[in-house]
Amino acid sequence: MSSFPWLLFLMAIVSIGCGHKEESLRGNRRGTPETIADLGALPLQVTHPADNPSTPEKVKLGRLLFFDPILSGNRDVSCATCHQPEFNYAEFLETSIGVNGVGMGSKRRFLDPNDIPFVKRNSQSVLNTAFNGLTNHEPYHPENAPMFWDMRVKGLEEQALEPIKTLEEMRGNAYPDEHILDEIILRIKGIPEYRSLFSEAFRNDKDPVNKKNLSRSIAAYERTLIANNTRFDQYMRGDSLALSTSEKEGLNAFLTTGCAKCHSGPMFSDFKMHTLGVPDSGNRKESDAGIKGDYAFRTPTLRNLRYTGPYMHSGKFTTLDQVLMFYEDIAGGKVINPLVKRSQMDTLATHMDVNFKDISRIVEFLNCLNDDNFDKSIPEKVPSGLRVSGM
Fold first, then answer.
1. Mean pLDDT lowest for which of 5-19, 128-142, 165-179, 289-303?
2. Which long-range contacts (CB under 8 A, 24 or more apart) does 18-25 make?
3. Percentage of the chain with pLDDT > 90?
4. Which of 121, 125, 169, 288 is the right S-S partner for 98, CB 3.0 to 4.6 Å?
5. CA-to-CA distance for 124 and 391, rounded, in angstroms?
6. What are φ and ψ of residue 110, in 5° steps?
7. Is there a contact between 133 and 112 (Cβ–Cβ < 8 Å)?
8. Cα angle value 104/105/110 (rounded, 5°)
9. Which structural domain range is residue 252 located in?
10. Is 279 a residue whose pLDDT tops 80?
């Protein structure tokens, strides 16, 4: 069966196989609902930038760097401290504790004395960031992939260096942001094993240990961290039995309530900024108004949510039920964050048709977006000799 007839068949199942759709549409304030064609399966293969093709040597080097605290100002925190394999390369904290912290996961705390703030926002998963920016029916350019909650940089290569330069994430007080990368490169050059690994990964470079190759190797490793074979992916690829009847009902509710207005495409994200009035984290004194001061943040992916709570940019919701009840409140006219004006609220959210009876069905559908078959391996040691992950 060709892909187009199969897609029509799936749309028919979702349209007529769930008895709740007609009822939902009668109360729908959003106009024409999305269909399953607005979603999609993830690709089976990753697209790499033309100037950073993947090689086993780059991936090996990037993996070691990802887990090595040598990249932090105080040599006490690594990328993996806040992006842990156990938690889908995210972290089970409202917002992270970066430098001057000790312990992992929910047991992590600041050392005393401490003058470092919490990380500003909830730690997003690194898993599937190889597909960030992927949308239906458009060419994919990995170098333009939007990164972070505020989309302030593009591409995994550029993203890889930002936490190193950020005070509360990895830099600390010992070095100014304009000098920290030079310091890190000097440290790496002083380690014979790293010099050898960089030379193997970047054979054509006369001086391979540099900032650009640091970012390229970490990005190459991060593009191996994918989970692209969920039961939903299997369903979209032609396995009509991959989803249960109740999960198909949840999919229908997901579409008719308006969730797919923003959570669309193979990554279940439109990769756009939306103002929703999410409450601030209490971990910092100042309110987080976002990069433009309008409280807008990027639509997160809905993939592998089982492992990535708490949710939203502030980490204020610990369960998916709480997230959906928040959207129900928005649709009912409430603005939860007192610093956000009603006029700022995104109409795609305020015009949703979420109600309590839909929540459990939608959560059941979201559970078929989980794929636990991804690389969770951790190096036994790193070239710097420091404790792996900064633990």
1. 5-19
2. 18/248, 18/249, 18/252, 18/253, 20/249, 20/252, 20/253, 20/256, 20/361, 21/252, 21/256, 24/252, 24/253, 24/256, 24/257, 24/353, 24/358, 25/256
3. 88
4. 169
5. 20
6. -75, 150
7. no
8. 60
9. 3-44+228-369
10. yes
Q: CA 310, CA 285: separation in Å to the nearest integer?
A: 20
The count of structural domains within the chain is: 2
Q: Are residue 88 and residue 128 in the same domain, yes or no?
A: yes
- Statement to judge: residues 131 and 162 lie in one domain: yes
- φ/ψ of 146, rounded to 5, equals -70, 140
Residue among 121, 135, 192 nearest 163 (CA): 121
Q: Looking at the structure, do residues 329 and 237 belong to the same domain, yes or no?
A: yes
Quick check: 2 and 233 in contact, CB under 8 A?
no
Q: What is the CATH number of the domain that holds 38?
A: 1.10.760.10
Which of 10-24, 46-60, 65-79 shows the lowest mean pLDDT across its residues? Answer: 10-24
Shared domain for 244 and 214, answered yes or no, is: no
Q: How many residues does the chain have?
A: 391
Q: Please tell me whether residues 251 and 215 are part of one structural domain.
A: no
Tell me: do 69 and 177 sit in the same domain.
yes
Same domain, 235 and 318: yes
For the segment 68-118, what is each residue's pLDDT rounded down to a tens digit?
A: 999 999 999 999 999 999 999 999 899 999 999 998 878 899 999 999 999
Instruction: Say yes or no to pLDDT of 18 above 90.
Output: no
